[in-house]
Write a structure and sequence with these properties.
The chain is of the alpha/beta class and 296 residues long. It has one domain: Alpha/Beta hydrolase fold, catalytic domain (Rossmann fold, 3-Layer(aba) Sandwich). Strands 1-2-3-5-4-6-7-8-9 form a nine-stranded mixed beta sheet, sandwiched between helices. InterPro entries: AB_hydrolase_1, AB_hydrolase_fold, Carboxylesterase_BioH. GO terms for molecular function: hydrolase activity.
């Protein structure tokens, strides 16, 4: 199994593009213009620094109306992951769009200790509430963000009206056997990271590895609310492109998730790697449009 598997799904060390060493802006908000040409017109994007549990997080809000589309990047990626998609989504839907940097990424402050999905959920929920967003959220969640989406939606079904899960980490995958395979395959990378824990990417990998097994044993038993429709996009190559057995398990997990409840649709991103938003942006945009239209 390729050692990139855990990195792509949970830590994103190899593909990380966020500058974790960047200082957080001193101001609580600042405005900038984001070009979104077309019938919907240009849109303004504003940066808000939101505090939760003693640390600050960067939220980027693009003006719009109707449902609020929250784009949540995979492990190791910050809000800039969506920079090419945000203007297109805004033009196509006219909706308000929110992207954000999870703790330790982009302009958000680092939190010490093992990575905990509960903390990540709290950060996102608190940020949305402080921005006045309490309903009609459409989550677009890639990779590791699927775990945040699952817990957030289960605990706050009134907040989320629909979701597009993009090659997301889903509960059915994490049997005891699969967890053990992922941990074993990635142990060399974790050991290497421990030799230089000063690097932000290494710190994130180490913190993820510390909580990985118990967190995913629990995640395996979490269910998605039947009241919240979702579209599941699964990549053809998956994060386990080097292991046919694990790649099939990833695809099977997506299919199982869809069968477990109503109003769920499965779509395969042909010819795509795990990086579906980069490889097949038009497909992601199409499914976001469809979800927005379905939710009014």
């Amino acid at each position: 199994m390729s050692g990139i598997a855990l990195l792509a799904v949970t830590a994103g060390v190899v593909t990380a593009c966020g500058d974790e060493g960047s200082p957080a802006p001193a101001s609580t908000s600042s405005a900038s213009t984001s070009a979104a040409p077309g019938a919907r017109g240009a849109a303004k994007t504003e940066l808000h620094m939101v505090e939760n549990d003693g640390h600050r997080l960067a939220f980027h809000v693009t003006d719009g109306s109707g449902p609020v589309i929250v784009l949540d990047a995979g492990g190791g990626e910050d809000s800039s992951y969506w920079k090419d998609i945000v203007p297109k989504v805004r033009t196509a839907t006219g909706a308000k769009i929110i992207t954000y940097d999870r703790a330790g990424l982009g302009h958000s402050e680092t939190v010490a200790g093992p990575w905990q999905v509960e903390s990540a959920v709290s950060d996102l929920k608190t940020g949305l509430h402080k921005l006045g967003v309490t309903k009609d959220v459409i989550l677009v969640s890639h990779s590791q963000a699927g775990e945040i989406a699952t817990y957030l939606t289960k605990e706050n079904p009134g907040l989320v009206s629909g979701s597009v899960l993009v090659d997301a980490s889903l509960p059915p995958l994490y049997t005891d056997e699969e967890i053990a395979r992922i941990v074993a395959a990635n142990q060399p990378a974790v050991d290497a990271a421990k030799k230089d824990p000063s690097k932000p990417q290494n710190r994130q990998l180490i913190s993820t590895a510390e909580s990985y097994t118990p967190m995913h044993k629990a995640y395996h038993h979490i269910s998605w609310p039947d009241t919240v429709p979702t579209t599941v996009i699964v990549s053809e190559k998956t994060p386990f492109d080097g292991s046919p057995e694990d790649a099939q398990r990833w695809r099977d997990a997506a299919a199982t998730f869809v069968r477990q409840g109503p109003d769920r649709t499965l779509i395969t991103a042909k010819r795509s790697s795990h990086d579906v938003p980069k490889d097949r942006p038009a497909l992601v945009l199409k499914e976001i449009e469809k979800m927005v239209s379905a939710q009014g």
